[in-house]
Amino acid sequence: MPWDNRYGKLAADKPHKVKVISTYTTDWEGIMGAYFIFQSGEAWTAWDGTGYGYATSHTSRYAEPAGSRRGASHWQVDLSYTQNWEFVEGYTARFRADLFNVFDKQTGYNYNPYLTDDNFGEARSYYNPRRVQLAVGVKF
């Protein structure tokens, strides 16, 4: 039956997740921040329609119990720096710089589940690469 092997771990199951957030205010009133995250890899399952009488099938036909496989775990570090300058009473200029995924860790996820496909088990999506975001603003 199509519902066979549906019992098990859900696709988004990530049993281990750790987040650490820290900030530090410098002597010159600059604020530095760091954010670290670690999470387990996602659970996934091979799909194969041959056991259901289909040579190929694009419908989820589980070839094994749900969540039998697990992808690679992911971790990354993000950094930020914020500086405020009060240049006239009631007017403040702000500069902020963010550096996301400092070590450029591009772990794969969303694995190809089709057992008969040449790309079976390969990641179809990846976490975002390293990037920088700059912002300037005026508060009045």
What secondary-structure arrangement, pairings included, does this model have?
Elements lengths: L16 E9 L5 E9 L3 E2 L24 E2 L3 E15 L2 E10 L7 E4 L11 E4 L4 E9 L1
Helical stretch tally: 0
Structural shape: elongated
Order of helices and strands: EEEEEEEEE
Q: Proportion of β residues?
A: over 45%
Calculate Rg over CA atoms.
23 Å
The largest pleated sheet is described as: 5 strands, antiparallel
- The assigned structural class equals mainly beta
Q: Could you name the ranges where pLDDT drops below 50 across 5 or more consecutive residues?
A: none
The span between the termini is 65 Å
Describe the overall structure:
- The chain has 140 residues and is an all-beta fold.
- 0% of the residues lie in helices and 46% in strands.
- The strands form 3 sheets. A 5-stranded antiparallel β-sheet has the order 1-2-5-6-9, with no helix packed on it. Strands 3-4 form a two-stranded antiparallel ribbon. A two-stranded antiparallel ribbon has the order 7-8.
- A hairpin with a 5-residue loop joins strand 1 and strand 2.
- 8% of the residues are buried.
- The mean pLDDT is 90.
Short description:
This protein is mostly beta strands. Helices cover 0% and strands 46% of the residues.
